[in-house]
Amino acid sequence: MHLPISCRTATALLLLSMADCGQASLAGFPYLQIQPDARVASTAASTVAGVSGVGGLQLNPASVAGLDDNQAQFLWLDHLQDINYFNTSISLKRYAPWILSAGFSHLGYGSLDGRDEFGVSTGSFESQDNLVFVGAARELGAVRAGANLKLGWSTIDDARASLLAMDLGLQSRVGKDFLLGAALRNAGKVLSDFGSSETPLPVTLQLGVQKSLEHLPFTWSLAWEQVKGQDSNMTVGGEFLVARRWHLGLGYNFGLGEDRLSAVSGESTRGLSAGLGGRIMEDYHFHWAWNSFGELGALNRFTISRTFP
After folding, report:
1. Total of domains in the chain
2. Is residue 2, in this structure, part of any structural domain at all?
3. Which of 208, 246, 279, 285 could anchor a disulfide with 49, C-beta 3.0 to 4.6 Å?
4. CATH, residue 148
């Protein structure tokens, strides 16, 4: 077997996991912490309380409860060199009041150079991560509830790893335009691992609030997050309605803004996020998000979604 992690692969995993949890760690299947939605990413994934629609499924499974229309979405993440990530998801109201969902994500690292323990080239190999999920959600009075069941599998050359995990989510409206939310993500079991010891899953608890202002076209959100085995983190975000069909998102990830990586200390933009989105045709919406990591660079997400009867 080739050495599993190249410098390029490590950098990709670092950026992708930090993008949505604010933690600089390669452990614990970091691809599970990627949020596959540009609108969510534009507000630093702080909208666990108020996120709605198919794009929020992997932030809070309750996001699709009470949908008026079926929804489908595709996301592409612009990354380094030939590293690519995409996600496609769909939510159907056919069995209302239950909303059923399914999705698939793929993270590919392209062709990597293998080395043995002496640094001698052993040829090229492929590495990738995949995730498939199914979910169900519904409204229960003023509360929305949802759950996802996820199966993930990874390959590094001829080595394999797999996992089975669950997400649970709740959202509730308290008073006028004030929302509470909670999500437990990635609780489950590693079915097989690359090595002899089992890598722990990044079990994540996130709590949040969201409020729409009465006299301004602005909604703010705040979330606290705890990933098992890591420091807790806070994210804050907001959306401005800049036109009848378009909104501007801004966010800040405190975990990224702190000096966790000495190599990028002093970078004032690290932890910031922004995005723009809105309706481009009758049933189609487009969203773009930008997440900054200082000297490490930035990530751009692009989402196209559609509603249909």
Report:
1. 1
2. no
3. 208
4. 2.40.160.60
**Whether the Cβ atoms of residue 266 and residue 284 lie closer than 8 Å to each other:** no
* Spatial CB neighbours of 118, under 8 Å, sequence gap ≥ 6: none
Looking at the domain assignment, is residue 188 inside a domain?
A: yes
Distance CA 40, CA 247 (A): 13
Exposure of 80 by Cβ count < 10 A (0-12 exposed, 13-18 middle, 19+ buried)?
middle
Please tell me the pTM assigned to this model: 0.88
pLDDT 10s digits, 275-308 = 999 999 989 999 999 998 777 778 899 999 999 9
Quote the domain boundaries for residue 200. Answer: 7-308
Residue 9 near residue 122 (C-beta atoms within 8 A)? no
Q: Is residue 173 part of a domain?
A: yes
pLDDT tens digit sequence for 44-81: 999 999 999 999 999 999 999 989 999 999 999 977 66
pLDDT tens for 146-182 read 999 999 999 988 889 999 999 999 999 998 889 999 9
In this structure, is residue 1 part of a structural domain?
no
Q: Is 13 exposed, middle or buried (0-12, 13-18, 19+ CB in 10 A)?
A: buried
